[in-house]
Amino acid sequence: MTKKVKRTEALLKRGIMPAVLTLTLPVVAQSLLQVLIGTVDLKMVGVLGRDAIAAVAMGRQVFMVIMILVLLLHCGQSAIPERPGPG
Fold this sequence. Notes:
With 87 residues, this protein is mainly α.
């Protein structure tokens, strides 16, 4: 038995809900940290005025569009190895 199969069996032995939570917690933490970074950015430039706040907000939107494109590429790329080969 390979290491990957053993890990999969260990995850599923506890039940599906703990396995799903184990896999999703890093993603949730990363999303919360992204929101926190945006909030801290706005708080730091808030003392500089409305123009600075608008600039940070626009920068965040550009960053989010780039992040969505990277995630789309990652999702498409991760599906390729899962397809069965020819024959």
